């Protein structure tokens, strides 16, 4: 066993480890004190005789290492990479499915939420005005970002342990993918399992006053949801609702780590979208999911707290158990929309 076993392939290590080791060892020498008693040339000599500055040397070395990495990559390819059966994925041979399953959802979260964060104000598509966002939300963006990062740290640790325990061989590139039909079935099963877990735990956190006050109310500090706040939860809630929910879905569906990459990334994008606060034309989630941004917005309103607990995929449990709140999407005179409870 080597320390990178199960994380990155030997080919990737063979390509990049020499480069990392170069900079570590050379960096060690660079950081030493002058040590004039041990030099083969004086420092003055170094200064006078060398006709190229350090910055150019660094650039030159990096260029050489780029070429070197490309050749090493091609060489390993030519020597017959052992690709696993089934459809190739773009991370094939670079990082393991387990690492992708752990980190891709985190990267996807920040990419998708970051995209929403960088949009212009879009006042004509907002579910709440910008002023409302400012007045009603009781936590600054910086705290939200910190909270999300903390949750993702815990999530990555649990995912890592989970994949370690369930990985059949502990080796990269040996688990065989089932057929596409089986994978789609597994994803549907995982969606139902996740919905079921989240509905009951989420609803219980609203019923139990202690849990609501000390745990779940943190998520509801964002009365006006925005994308980056999608996973702004108390760390215990993040663990119980999202992370354990994800683990159970993964285990019951029987999906491989490779299928889990797709499923977890999809779940994350859906959750971010549900909190984006915008009703944009052409949003596919709004077209295909009844449980969408407006649906979840109702739950974030003070008068909607007892309804629309279902998340992240389907409204089934709300409808079966009488917590479904129909709403009307009304155009605001000042621009944008409002999801208004039909009972009002
Ligand atoms: Zn809630
Ligand atoms: Zn929410």
From TrEMBL:
Main location: membrane
Keywords for this protein: Membrane, Transmembrane, Transmembrane helix
Residue span, Fatty acid hydroxylase domain: 188-323
GO term, biological process aspect, one: lipid biosynthetic process
One annotated Gene Ontology cellular component of this protein: membrane
Similarity field: Belongs to the sterol desaturase family.
Record's protein name: Fatty acid hydroxylase domain-containing protein
Protein source organism: Ambrosia artemisiifolia
């Amino acid at each position: 066993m080597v320390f990178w076993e199960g994380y990155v392939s030997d080919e990737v290590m063979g390509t990049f480890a020499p480069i990392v080791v170069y900079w570590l060892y050379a960096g060690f020498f660079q950081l030493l004190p002058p040590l004039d008693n041990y030099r083969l040339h004086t420092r003055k000599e170094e200064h006078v005789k060398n006709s190229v500055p350090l910055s150019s040397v660094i650039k030159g070395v990096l260029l050489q290492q780029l070429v070197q990495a490309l050749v090493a990559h091609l060489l390993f390819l030519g020597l017959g990479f052992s690709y696993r059966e089934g459809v190739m994925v773009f991370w094939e041979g670079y990082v393991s499915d387990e690492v992708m399953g752990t980190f891709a959802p985190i990267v996807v979260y920040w990419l998708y939420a970051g995209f929403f964060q960088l949009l212009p104000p879009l006042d004509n598509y907002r579910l709440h005005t910008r002023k409302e966002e400012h007045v009603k939300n009781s936590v600054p963006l910086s705290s939200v970002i910190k909270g999300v990062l903390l949750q993702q740290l815990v999530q990555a640790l649990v995912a890592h342990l989970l994949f370690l325990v369930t990985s059949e061989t502990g080796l990269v590139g040996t688990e065989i993918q089932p057929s596409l039909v089986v994978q789609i079935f597994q994803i549907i099963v995982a969606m139902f399992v996740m919905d079921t877990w989240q509905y009951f735990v989420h609803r219980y956190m609203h019923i139990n006053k202690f849990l609501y006050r000390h745990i779940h109310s943190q998520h509801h500090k964002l009365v006006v949801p925005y994308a980056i706040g999608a996973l702004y939860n108390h760390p215990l809630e993040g663990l119980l609702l999202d992370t354990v929910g994800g683990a159970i879905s993964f285990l019951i569906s029987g999906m491989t780590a490779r299928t889990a990459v797709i499923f977890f990334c999809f779940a994350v994008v859906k959750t971010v979208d549900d909190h984006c606060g915008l009703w944009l034309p052409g949003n596919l989630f709004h077209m295909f999911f009844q449980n969408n941004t407006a649906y979840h917005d109702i739950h974030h309103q003070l008068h909607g707290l007892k309804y629309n607990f279902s998340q992240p995929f389907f409204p089934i449990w709300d409808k079966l158990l009488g917590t479904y709140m129909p709403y009307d999407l009304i155009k605001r005179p000042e621009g944008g929309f409002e999801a208004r409870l039909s009972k009002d």
